[in-house]
Amino acid sequence: MILNERAFRHEQVLTVARQMMTAARTAPKGKGMDLLEIALIEGEELKALSDKMIAMSAENGLKFFLRDADNVMQAECVVIIGTHAQEHGLNCGHCGSPTCAARPDGVPCVLNSVDVGIALGSACATAADLRVDTRVMFSAGLAAQQLDWLPDCKEVFAIPVSASSKNPFFDRKPKT
């Protein structure tokens, strides 16, 4: 039997993406509180995500959303990671407020932000270990957040995943 890599590449990338999700889930979390939500986007939803990013670029004037929207369409799938907003009750002051109670609405608890960052790093490290290409995208995460794909989550980031001859997420040309 001869198996050509091209015949099962998509399934292999999905397997890696699932392992990335596990790595994100098992990443350390502040006070051991797991507030993360993690999902895998593929198929028609990639086009919906890209379209949302294009619409957002028209609204906010940020051209890198267009470039990133193209990258989403070059990906086999996208992993999204977000957090529910919840204070940890430490009164640590890292958010800029002296106490958790004094933290203004809309200002995230720093531990929520750190948890997302550690999860992103764990997911990308897993991808690197398995030799697939990724890039953390704030733009695609914000679009996924606006699409409400991780309900009630804040600080959503996206990681497009690709296994191609050349990493499509680097050496990118800006849109004009």
Q: Summarize this, please?
A:
The protein is α+β, with helices and mostly antiparallel strands. It is 45% helix and 15% strand.
Features:
176 residues, alpha+beta, NADH Oxidase, 45% helix
Describe the structure.
By secondary structure, the protein is of the alpha+beta class. It has one domain: NADH Oxidase (3-Layer(aba) Sandwich). The chain is 45% helix and 15% strand. The chain is built from 5 helices and 4 strands, in the order H-E-H-H-E-H-E-H-E. It has helices at residues 5-26, 44-60, 64-74, 110-129, 138-146; strands at 36-41, 77-84, 133-134, 153-162. It has a 4-stranded antiparallel beta sheet, with helices on both faces. Helix 1 runs antiparallel to helix 4 (110-129), helix 2 (44-60) packs antiparallel against helix 3 and helix 2 (44-60) crosses helix 5. The radius of gyration is 17 Å and the shape is globular. The termini are far apart.
